[in-house]
Amino acid sequence: MPVSRRTFFKNTSLAAASVAFPAVVKSANPNSKLQVVSVGANGMAFSDIKNIGAHAAVKYVGFCDIDSTRFDQVDKAFPGTPHFADFREMYAQLGDKFDAVSVGTPDHMHAKASIDALRLKKHVYCQKPLAHTVWESRQMRLEAEKAGVTTQMGNQIHSAIEYRLGTRLLKEGAIGKIKEVYSWVAVTGNERNKRLEPLPGSAVPKNVNWDLWIGCAPMREYAACYHPFIWRDWQDFGGGAMGDFGCHILDPVFTALDLNAPLTVTARNSGINQHIWPTSEEVEFVFPGNELTADKTLKVTWSDGGLRPDRKLAKMPDNLELPKSGSLFIGETGNMVLGHVAGPRLYPTDKFTTFKYPKEKGLSHWHVWVDACLTNSKTSDGFHYAGPLSEAVQLGNVATRFCPGPIDSRTGDPLEPKILEWDAANLSFKNFPEANKLLTKTYREGWAI
């Protein structure tokens, strides 16, 4: 039976008052299971379900998906687990019968599904990017602090041996203090979808609950270019190339160099409308410097859609090329290239011929979260860290939407970039208040956070 908004929020308030710290209760009994539900049952959601469910202390008690045909994998892996279409009904019906939530929906629903769970004092594992907007990213961090539960963002390479080794080398000063960083991804903002305008609507398949899929976003007619995957290219639902990969590739940059909020952000792009993210873009952040950086500020340049830095900056051998995706750290005594899901390499080669890489081990990102849930402790990738990282990524998308492309479409003349000065404490721009409207979005009635 569908649950009304009034009933759901009444139940949310009651549960928040009565189920304060579920992991404390669980950890009192070492034989108890962490009872988990998943919002999303296929695609990346299933990858998370499978990896979380491989932990001996996990028991699934509910799976939710708006598409009734997408339960086949979870039913095979974890048979007998109840199905739901609406995560709000799942939360309300299961009540105190679940302890934790894994969220693997399209980006525009991350914050709603996660924050509703946090207000019920449930542990949350949420896929990257943490949220769809800067404001949502901030609320995710604040709500997690209030809830006092264990959280983690689903940028799983954070725990992999490649990124752990790379961040360790940087923190230990293998290339000295850092002067500048370049990060890039080969994927384009709309490589999966060449359309610039929404398709005419078509009949909704019987297996899809389109109203629940749209959720927080403005209502539009169903078209096959949104579900189940190409939604990422559309501004109402995803974050383009930066939203897809920013929380992966910028993660070791943030972790190694203890970054938080940028001072300024600006962007150039190949052209953008109000529907689709650009094919390529370059976003320049300036962060406050610290004891790990060479100067008082640090410039971090992001690019995608085939754009990447000049390989000569890395001082690599002539027979090598930069990876298709990754980061280049320019240090005072050398450079590091950290490919996306690849081990770090130090250059120029002749300076590091005798360098011995320390031994490092990779961890299961999902099991780190489960173990922390059972002991009511923090992970290194909890929302206290992932929130600011996600804010920076979404600030890049704000700059892409607000700042001009490289050429004035009317005159053909080059345009001066707009540099947005960020006031993190007040969640606003100092010099372009008109850009503040892009920090959040309008929520459909009944779906506000």
From TrEMBL:
It comes from Prosthecobacter dejongeii. Coiled coil: none annotated. Residues 35-154 form the Gfo/Idh/MocA-like oxidoreductase N-terminal domain. GO terms for molecular function: nucleotide binding. This is Putative dehydrogenase. Residues 199-265 form the Gfo/Idh/MocA-like oxidoreductase bacterial type C-terminal domain. PROSITE patterns: TAT (PS51318). Pfam families: GFO_IDH_MocA, GFO_IDH_MocA_C2. InterPro entries: Gfo/Idh/MocA-like_OxRdtase_N (IPR000683), Gfo/Idh/MocA_oxidrdct_glycsds (IPR050463), Gfo/Idh/MocA_OxRdtase_bact_C (IPR043906), NAD(P)-bd_dom_sf (IPR036291), TAT_signal (IPR006311).
